[in-house]
Amino acid sequence: DAMVIQNPRYQVTQFGKPVTLSCSQTLNHNVMYWYQQKSSQAPKLLFHYYDKDFNNEADTPDNFQSRRPNTSFCFLDIRSPGLGDAAMYLCATSGGLARHTDTQYFGPGTRLTVL
Amino acid sequence: SQKIEQNSEALNIQEGKTATLTCNYTNYSPAYLQWYRQDPGRGPVFLLLIRENEKEKRKERLKVTFDTTLKQSLFHITASQPADSATYLCALDLGSSNTGKLIFGQGTTLQVKP
Description:
heterodimer, A: mainly beta, 4-stranded antiparallel β-sheet, 50% strand, globular, B: mainly beta, 5-stranded antiparallel β-sheet, 11 strands
């Protein structure tokens, strides 16, 4: 089945220790998104790629970086995680080709704990 | 300021009843509005999309309305079942680009009791 896969599902890191979360997709979608979601809050868009074009949200901290080496994979790097970065990180994709079909397909998320 | 508001209090209803969830927004002009379901510890799953020129959309037991004058969408689940228990998120698509960027509400948790 075509899908969005996130690894790992649970990640524990130490304060200040860099961490990388990964996302892969078999949908061959042009657009990939990274969201941060804290408990009982809305998913907050951090950035997205349209093909290789990177689009950063204005309020995304510099501590968060992303890479998309090819269509299938996208990575979220947190350079120096703080306690406030503990959250669920969601990866999503969309076709980006036709407006009326631009719904988003989400992965299961990575739960990040910062000690 | 721009806001999307969904009831933060959980909605508890009896099995078989109709659940109605509300999404209100201010200072946005969305081209589309989408509804997603999110189960605990999982990513959201798309349910329905409605365009700004559509008043109502249906899919099986689900119905969505979109009133651009009131700046409100209502999401209905008829003949609700315990399996419908989840958090439901509304999301605005401003339609300003091809990248389909969405702005999500915080969601309303629905609990359907047998």
